[in-house]
Design goal:
Length: 220
């Protein structure tokens, strides 16, 4: 029975060589297209993940208030965020506008933690300690300073730790000052009497945790 089927197949190929060859080529092309589409989709997904990580870092969730609401994250709220089930790591961030004494002008200031969430989000590599500062290249050129030089900010002296690439939005460079978050918290208390831990928090959830589930818990 098997032999007869093989004989029929061989006779078909001998008598219909063009049809057989065309069919084989069509199958090969179809398989090639399927493989190509699979590779394209995989590369597209990888590129999308890389672009998102470039913009937002390794965080899964960002928690904070609308600045117009006038609310901030205090110690109690920070403790509650850390205690939510599924939260693996929290990196708090404070946003301010502090004056650089030499320029007598205020600049966008970010108070950051020295962890992987903050470093991946803001693209700095060196730890920023209490009396250290990192700034973007454009601001460093304006001040004509280099790593290791001193900067006076709101009357406090800081050592320049790192010069970061310029941030460009719509073709315009944004000058940014990066300080240690705990230092910014103290400066806020001294300057304005504010008691806030953060304006928003970067959150990393557990490996097998659904970020959407954690986000819903945080809303409560």
């Amino acid at each position: 029975m098997i032999k007869s089927i093989i004989d029929v197949a061989l006779r078909f190929f001998r008598n219909n060589k063009l049809i057989a060859a065309t069919s084989i080529i069509s199958v090969i092309i179809s398989l090639s297209l399927i493989i190509t589409m699979g590779v394209f989709i995989a590369n597209a997904e990888k590129s999308m993940v890389e672009e998102i990580e470039e913009m937002y870092g390794k965080m899964d969730i960002e928690v904070g208030f609308d600045p117009q609401q006038g609310w901030v994250i205090d110690r109690d709220l920070s403790d509650k965020i850390n205690s939510v089930s599924g939260v693996e790591h929290v990196s708090n961030v404070i946003l301010e506008h502090f004056t650089i004494d030499e320029l007598n002008a205020t600049y966008y200031t970010v108070g950051v933690e020295n962890d992987y969430l903050a470093k991946s989000r803001y693209h700095f590599t060196e730890d920023i300690h209490e009396n250290e500062v990192s700034i973007n290249q454009g601001l460093a050129e304006l001040l004509n300073i280099h790593v290791g030089n001193k900067i006076m900010i709101e009357g406090d002296e800081f050592t320049l730790k790192e010069i970061l690439p310029n941030l460009e939005e719509a073709g315009k460079v944004t000058d940014v000052v990066y300080l240690n978050r705990a230092k910014v918290e103290k400066m806020n208390q001294n300057l304005y009497g504010l008691h806030k831990i953060a304006d928003y928090s970067l959150i990393k959830v557990g490996e097998k945790t659904d970020p959407q589930v954690v986000a819903q818990s945080l809303k409560k």
